[in-house]
Amino acid sequence: MSTSTSVGDLLYSDTEEALRDAVRRLFADRCPPELVVRVYDPEPPDFTALWRALATELGVAGLLVPETLGGAGAGPREAAVVMEEIGRAVAPVPFLSSAVLATVALVSAGETEAVAALAAGELTAALAVPLTTAPGDRVAGVSRGADGLTGSITSVAGAVQADLLVVPVAGADGLELHTVSRIAPGVDVAPLRSLDMTRPIADVRFSSAASVRVGPGDGPIASALETGAAMLASEQLGVARWCFDTTLAYAKQRTQFGRLIGSYQALKHRLADLWFEVGAATAAARHAADACARGDDASVAAALAQAYCSGVAVHVAEECVQLHGGIGMTWEYPAHLYLKRAKSDQLALGTGYRHRARLADLVDLVRE
Fold first, then answer.
1. CA–CA separation, 115 vs 36, rounded Å?
2. CB 314, CB 123: distance < 8 Å
3. Are 275 and 269 in contact (CB under 8 A)?
4. Residue 73: left (phi > 0), alpha (psi -120 to 50), or beta?
5. How far apart are CA 33 and CA 45, in angstroms?
6. Beta carbons of 166 and 179 less than 8 angstroms apart
7. Domains defined along the chain, listed by start
8. What are the tens digits of pLDDT across the range 134-172?
């Protein structure tokens, strides 16, 4: 474990704020809550154009790709800002699954052709591991025979939207990383009905499917999962921020029995507690993104951020629903979208318990 105690600048830079403004404007224009809620309809809207605009017009698909491969040459801090805004809008885009998980795995493995296409927004990819996989988990991988890949993987995020699947494969000398076209013969992607339909998941089955070997898989997958966990904390922060800001604004204008509900002391205390939690979550998420960017105690920072931010997002979303009273329980009001995303994120890339256990191992604490 690294013994470094240096801390970077956790304030948002001018570049990061400009990126935030651009992403927020795009979501406000093309991803309003009344449209997002329709993802639960029998015939949900198609958000492919939204993702293409985010990936190509704003260029966020290449934030974690080096400039030599056609990417933006930015880093985790900028990607974390995008994740914040995705959480704030509960935007149904595959940024985490494609621009973070799959891209980091391929870049780490030394792949160039698919990475360049991903950076340009020409391809969308998904890392074929269960969404619940935490950093440090053993990834079994599908098997490879003379006729191709065989096996199945459950609950893969972004598989439905992906053009390319980045697949861990159990090879003779250990885990390998392969790429497979989603529409190739022998590949079946079965969408699942889940609590949070703004981040679709699917079971993926391979039956003698042709693949391209990229290289060894253990290191690239570990890097992808750790970066993904750090970035997910920023999405959880975005969810919590929207819920707190919206609830505070509602408490300032909603009257009951002739008084603003925000004037009641009990509500003031609850809102003060939420304000503190969101502030602490901001520090944890920003530290995780900054540590990931600097490569300094990134594992510890990611585990700490996930252990804290996942619970905060759920708590603030629950309070948002309750403190809005009757309107918070309605389908038309978007509070339920944020609670569903918060609960889904709480299970994604490892639960808070898993990250606390990993954190204990990383800092040499004895677990009882």
1. 29
2. no
3. no
4. left
5. 12
6. yes
7. 14-124 (1.10.540.10), 142-216 (2.40.110.10), 220-362 (1.20.140.10)
8. 999 999 889 998 899 999 999 999 999 999 999 999 988
